[in-house]
Design brief:
The structure holds 2 protein chains of 2 kinds.
Chain A: E1 4-6, E2 10-13, E3 19-25, E4 31-38, E5 42-49, E6 56-57, E7 65-70, E8 73-78, E9 87-94, E10 104-105, E11 109-113
Parallel strand pairs in A: 2-11
Antiparallel strand pairs in A: 1-3, 3-8, 4-5, 4-9, 5-6, 7-8, 9-10, 9-11
Chain B: E1 4-7, E2 10-14, E3 19-25, E4 33-38, E5 45-50, E6 56-59, E7 62-67, E8 72-77, E9 86-94, E10 97-100, E11 104-109
Parallel strand pairs in B: 2-11
Antiparallel strand pairs in B: 1-3, 3-8, 4-5, 4-9, 6-7, 7-8, 9-10, 9-11
Classes of the chains: A mainly beta, B mainly beta.
Chain lengths: 114, 110
């Protein structure tokens, strides 16, 4: 079974802090994704990566950056957290770059920015 | 602008009934339409998916109906069970583009 793990289930940070969200997948998947999930807005793609050190902007990349130094690990970085970044963050991975491949999601990190 | 519009926002169905969730899209370049199911405290998981070259796909109690000319697709859950209570997301994608609907919270009452 594919397993996607996220470093924290809950996180509380202060405005202006730098925040790191970590995601690890154990199935040698090429593609990894970061989404945020908000009530009434569904899932929105922030960034995705199809290879080590590669990244592509999704729909809402502003205020975020990502890092993929190893194939299995994809990090989401909030350079200076703001209250409007309070959300549920979901990481996903898929086998390869084919957009029709199943995305496997982690359990999510609920981030509260005070 | 919402690329994929989903309705209803919430749905309550009696056990044994049919649950229907609808989605519409604008971009005719989308060529893959999956549905994801999410239980509380879990990430979404793929339920069923369809490509636009077919009008219907069935897997067990779950059926996707696809209307290419109307740019609409829907999920039908037959014989709905309390264990189907979850949030359902439709999605649409093409190369390097992935869009999800806003979600439907389904409650199946015994």
């Amino acid at each position: 079974d594919v397993k996607v793990t996220q470093s924290s289930r809950y996180l509380v940070k202060r405005t202006g802090e730098k925040v790191f969200l970590e995601c690890v997948q154990d199935m040698d998947h090429e593609n990894m994704f970061w989404y945020r999930q908000d009530p009434g807005l569904g899932l929105r793609l922030i960034y995705f990566s199809y290879d080590v050190k590669m990244k592509e902007k999704g729909d809402i990349p502003e205020g975020y950056s990502v890092s993929r130094e190893k194939k299995e690990r994809f990090s989401l970085i909030l350079e200076s957290a703001s209250t409007n970044q309070t959300s549920m963050y979901l990481c996903a991975s898929s086998r390869n770059r084919d957009h029709r491949e199943t995305q496997y999601f982690g359990p999510g990190t609920r981030l509260l920015v005070l | 602008q919402q690329q994929v519009k989903q309705s209803p926002q919430s749905l309550i169905v009696q056990k044994g009934g049919i649950s229907i969730i609808n989605c519409a899209y604008e971009n005719t370049a989308f060529d893959y339409f999956p549905w994801y199911q999410q239980f509380p405290g879990k990430g979404p998981a793929l339920l069923i998916a369809i490509r636009p070259d077919v009008s219907e796909k069935k897997e067990g109690r779950f059926t996707i109906s696809f209307n290419k000319s109307a740019k609409q697709f829907s999920l039908h859950i037959m014989d709905s069970q309390p264990g189907d209570s979850a949030t359902y997301f439709c999605a649409a994608s093409r190369v390097n583009q992935f869009y999800f609907g806003t979600g439907t919270s389904l409650t199946v009452i015994p």
